[in-house]
Amino acid sequence: MKTKTQFKQEMRKYFREVVDKVTGETFISWFDNLWAELEAGGQVIKISGTNYVKDGSDSEPKSSGAADVTDATQQLKETVKAAIIKDRAETDVIDLRNFKDAVNAAVSEESGADENWSWSVKAINKFRVKIGWGYTDSMGEKTPFSVRTEAGWVENPVVIGEMPNGQKVVAFVGDAPWDDYKTYEEAVAGVIHSMARTARNIY
Fold this sequence. Notes:
The chain is of the alpha+beta class. 46% of the residues lie in helices and 18% in strands. Strands 4-5-6-7-8 form a five-stranded antiparallel β-sheet. Strands 1-3-2 form a three-stranded antiparallel β-sheet. Helix 1 (4-23) packs across helix 2. Residues 58-70 have low confidence and may be disordered.
């Protein structure tokens, strides 16, 4: 088991940046809510005036100098991480209809750049964009090019483009050095351009 202070340090170390990005809360506010949920769920016990959170690693509290992260503690972290992912999936759905202008502009650019075949927007709904290409349409292909988002990726929200042959284009969204685009609008347009370039090379 870990004391409240030890548990708080673990959560800060592994999740502070994630929590701030996902919920928009400060770490302290988020942690206080988490601790209240753990108490309500019977996961907190008091021994000799000290609160401990159960992690299944042992039946007795360890001293502050006792050893590092156990498998059980890691499982606890994964539980918290899964809760964050679930919360984001439920509350932070990206509505692709908000990027209609960016979709239309990108498709129009690709249609103008394609010497032989036109590109067109077949449908835009909350969760998916469907795009047609004259070449695959002429071949009788029923599966469109599509774009969707996965905001539930805690480390990196992504925009995913999928081509009729199943090949995927993935763009990471965020401010980190490894991200491809800073905004979803840029990422949606970028994925459309990437799919079009790839399509002209492989078909």
